[in-house]
Amino acid sequence: MINPAILKRDRLLVLAALATLAAVSWAYTVYLGVQNASMASKMVMPMTVAWSLDDLVFMFVMWATMMFAMMLPSVTPTVMIYGRVRQKREASGRPFAPTMAFVSGYLIAWAGFSLIATMVNWGLHAGGAMTEMMGRVIPVIAGVLLIIAGLFQWTPAKNACLNHCRSPMGFLIQNWRDGFSGAIRMGLHHGAYCLGCCWMLMVLLFVLGVMNLPWVAMLTVVVLAEKTLPYGRQISRILGVILVVWGIALIAGWELVGT
Q1: Phi and psi for 85 in degrees, rounded to 5?
Q2: pLDDT single digits (tens) 58-85
């Protein structure tokens, strides 16, 4: 029988680690957002300088940190459920110790997305579709992305991935893997579902402004609401309608508000 005090301590350590990761990620994201806004206010001409290797690395770190900041709040309930399931399956040892390995797998999945996003960011900027490295795409492309994102909110793929994120217990029990490597693999697996649920919302950062802090915060709240609130599925579908209408209006020549 594991000492309840040890279980409580490990649970608090996991929560503290998640809170620290999220706080550091948000601090860096806010810092970059403020710096980007300050630089943009001084710019008259769009940035046209070709990206260097340092630029690519910097942008990857920026995307990864931003994804971690946005996704860690919504994955925290699943992480704690994972810890409880591990406690029940392992009658000895430290059942919460590998939980951060699960988190690591989850973050690796989003780091993979960040690498793709960085390359897309580079391609859009190099092709003249973005005004700045951390800016937003031209209105026509923005409108198309909004429509695609809105339609995606109604697809079976979105619904299946959202159902998984909202109710992860079945996945954790049916796909359980022991050990630290198993925890990482489970984290990757869950991260893949989370990517399937949220990737189009993250793509909207190209529409709203890659480092537009109010929109980054808004999308974080939307993702959290979809995954945790009782009416999360309805929120997702209503958002889909809003995005489609917004995209049509933008293509028709209306200005993108709030950016």
Answers
A1: -65, -40
A2: 999 999 999 999 999 999 999 999 988 8
Look-up: residue for tokens 């390995």? Answer: 101
The encoded tokens of residue 93 equal 């040892």
What is the SS3 assignment for 146-173?
HHHHHHHCCCHHHHHHHHHHHCCHHHHH
Cα-only R_g, the chain = 20
pTM over 0.85: yes
Render pLDDT for 103-132 as a digit per residue (tens, 0 to 9): 999 999 999 999 999 999 999 988 888 877
CA distances from 74 to 133, 198, 227 (A): 28, 11, 7
Interacting residues of 208 by C-beta distance below 8 A, sequence separation 6+: 136, 215, 219, 256, 258, 259
